[in-house]
Amino acid sequence: MTDFNVEETLAQLTLKEKVALLSLRDFWHLTPVERLNIPAIRLSDGPNGVRGTKFFKSVPSACFSCGTGLGSTWDTELLEEAGHLMSVEARHKGAHAILGPTCNIQRGPLGGRGFESFSEDQYLSGMASAAIVNGIQKGGVAATIKHFVCNDLEDERNSINSIVSERALREVYLMPFQLATKYANPKSFMTAYNKVNGTHVSQSKKLLDGVLRGEWGWDGMIMSDWFGCYSIEQSIEAGLDLECPGSPLIRKHDSLIHQIMAREIPMPLIDERVTNILKFIKFALQSGIPSDGPEDTKNNTPETSAFLRKLADDAIVLLKNEGGLLPLKKEDKIAVIGPGAKSPRTFGGGSASLNPYYQTNVLDAVKKHLGTDDVSYALGSEVELALYDLGKVVSTEKGAGFHIKVYNKPVDAEDRIMFEDMTVESSKFLLFDYFPKGAKEQLFYLDMEGDFTPEVTGEYAFQESCLGSN
């Protein structure tokens, strides 16, 4: 199916099917309705590239400059081209919609996701967002502008209350979203985790139904951030169409059906939410992207690399060149200083993480450009609070990184079974979407093996850290 009539389809849906549509099927797909030939629409992070459906050992993707870098180009035509390239990447990952761009206002250096956003200036943020959205959607892929609204800190992200005056809310925080809506019309919005003036945005009737749909006249689909839906009745009444991810944490199907049958939630309200989702699906299907399609790296071309380099080059803003210091002369003695020179932050974590087609570091790039290894390096200040990436200093017969062997039992068990044997390049990985082949439960044990050759003789300590259970 590549098209359908929304009103006719709504009339054919059963109550159970309508309720199922109000949350994702899994982490990345809308719920299909196979009886009516409505397929599963795929979503993909994120703000600086299209990762695909996996965090752990994801298919390599084009890594774009972060939002702040893109905003620093001051070039909306270039950003629209960037958005179009994102749509091409989405097609190669089988994704019908991209969860980006991020359109929040940078209010300080401690915002955990500040790098995703374009600027502290609301006009630049809005016009940059509009350009990216236009580029994505002209490529037939839906854009999801986020995180609506006042999502500018990560401290207690699900409970923090952003207290904002009406004037500041209108003139600073809402304005970028308003500009993007006016000049690009993104097909979906993602609500923020936080509260605004005491009410979670995902259940704020004032912001969703009042401002976004009422005052601005926008008619797309609104989804929650991942695990950012906090109620059944309030979120549906406020205008939140889709809970993410699935299986739903809040909108459990039996509970929602019970509330509808008890007339706690009016059926016309459910139909309104489902209609918005169906319109989103209708747009997504027109892309011709197959449902549950494969993910590939065929867009890893010289042309893609050249454009990504141009984006990064144009993001550099020279404020002052005192004494004609730049450009550096090849005959000068050069020192490279800083922890990022050897271990660069190529991308952020979480939704901004991906597996780049290509990456290097400043130190190696300078040496290559100069054609010499005679470049001094110093760590400078220490900025890493977590353990360093072990994959940078160990190796296997295949190169940098280490072997991971996955077992059903711990190392001291005699009859343990190995599920998988793989090679990874980094010790910093996310496993919550990984399930070993052959495993019957979400419990497994990792043996990590690699060769370490120290640069200096001495005693070395190897440590491991884990977020979550281990």
* CATH class descriptor name of the largest domain: Alpha Beta
N/C terminus separation: 44 Å
Rg (CA only): 24 Å
Physical arrangement of strands within the biggest beta sheet: 1-2-3-5-8
Low-confidence stretches: none
Tally the helices. 13
Q: Which range does the strand content fall in? A: 5-15%
Subunit organisation of the chains: single chain
Which CATH architecture of the largest domain would you pick? Alpha-Beta Barrel
Number of strands: 16
From the 3D structure, determine the CATH topology of the largest domain. TIM Barrel
Mean pLDDT comes to: 93
State the share of residues found in helices, binned by percent.
25-40%
Structural class: alpha/beta
Number of domains: 3
CATH superfamily of the largest domain: Glycoside hydrolase, family 3, N-terminal domain
> H/E order of the elements?
HHEHHEHEEHHEEEHEHHHHEHEEEEEEE
What is the 3D form?
globular
Q: What about the largest sheet?
A: 5 strands, parallel
Domain Glycoside hydrolase family 3 C-terminal: 316-382
Pfam family, one: Glyco_hydro_3
Domain Glycoside hydrolase family 3 N-terminal: 34-279
Enzyme class: hydrolase
Question: How would you characterize this protein structure?
Answer:
Strand 9, helix 13 (362-370) and strand 10 (376-378) form a beta-alpha-beta unit. It contains 13 helices and 16 strands. The protein is α/β, with parallel strands linked by helices. The protein has 3 domains: 6-285, Glycoside hydrolase, family 3, N-terminal domain (TIM Barrel, Alpha-Beta Barrel); 334-385, no CATH class; 387-470, no CATH class. The strands form 5 sheets. A 5-stranded parallel sheet has the order 1-2-3-5-8.
